[in-house]
Structure formats: C-alpha cells, structure tokens
Amino acid sequence: MQPTPNTYTPLPSAEEVAACAPPKEVRVGGKGASLTLSWPEGRAETFTAPFLRENSQSAGSKKLRLNGMAVPARPDLTITSVRPIGAYAINIVFSDGYDRGIYPWAFLLQLAETAAAAPEQTALTPEDYLKGN
C-alpha cells in the first residue's frame, strides 16, 4: 500500500539524513516499474515508479503540492536510471525525462512508514465528481 500521492511530505531534518544508514541494495525491477531498497536490518521497501515521481521533493513539485495541485504521473511511467548522490541519497531519472528529484534515504524510509500507516485509498470515478456538483 502506498500513501495518497500529491500530499506534502516534509523532508527529514539534516540530523535524520545524517543518521540514516544507506540500504544494502538498491534494485530497479519490473523493467523499471519499481524500486526496491533492502535495508541493513533486513527489511525491504518497494515503491512504484509513478508513486516516486508523484512524491518528488523537487522545488517545482513541492510548489504544486503546496498550492493544492496534483503532480500526476502516468501509470506506465518507468525508472530509466538511478544515480547516487553522495552517501545520503539517490537521484531517479524517469521515462518522461524528469530527473530533478533527490530522494534521501531518510525520506524514502519516511515514505514507507507513511504508506504503512495510510488507509487504503480508492480511486474516484466520474460519478463521484458529479455527486458534489
């Protein structure tokens, strides 16, 4: 389960970033459809490419979310490259050409914890929009 996309998730503090150990393994799976992180304590977290793109913490994406706008990603979006950023983060390049997001390890752990605590969300239908109008 993944948290509701397009909600603002603050980045971890500098202390949290510094204290977060990097994963043992970073694996792109499903022909770029997902990213799995295997942590030293034995747990693994898997994120879909659209979810990661929708939760990017780039300045442009943050501005859209803070203004109440969505940061939609196509469902067929894939990961084309993962680049290390020092020892604290990765940069993910997506098939739509987006390459601006930096994903610190502590932020990815935070996303996983948010996903575990979030209730299951159902997709809205056109009828749901008509009910309110």
Number of domain modules:
1
CATH level-two architecture:
2-Layer Sandwich
Sheet having the most strands: 3 strands, antiparallel
Question: Which range does the strand content fall in?
Answer: 15-25%
Structural class: alpha+beta
CATH class identity: Alpha Beta
Average pLDDT metric:
83
* Helix and strand element order: HEEEHHEEEHH
How many beta strands in the DSSP annotation? 6
Spatial strand order of the main sheet: 1-2-3
Radius of gyration: 15 Å
What does this molecule look like?
- With 133 residues, this protein is α+β, with helices and mostly antiparallel strands.
- It has a single domain (14-131), classed as NE0471 N-terminal domain-like.
- It is built from 5 helices and 6 strands.
- A hairpin with a 4-residue loop joins β1 (25-29) and β2.
- The radius of gyration is 15 Å and the shape is globular.
- The two termini are 30 Å apart.
- Mean pLDDT is 83; it is low at 1-6.
Compile the SSE list and pairings:
Blueprint: H1 14-19, E1 25-29, E2 34-38, E3 44-48, H2 49-54, H3 59-66, E4 79-85, E5 89-94, E6 102-104, H4 105-117, H5 126-131
Give a short overview:
29% of the residues lie in helices and 23% in strands. The protein has 133 residues and is α+β, with helices and mostly antiparallel strands.
Keywords:
three-stranded antiparallel β-sheet; alpha+beta; 133 residues; 5 helices; 6 strands; disordered N terminus
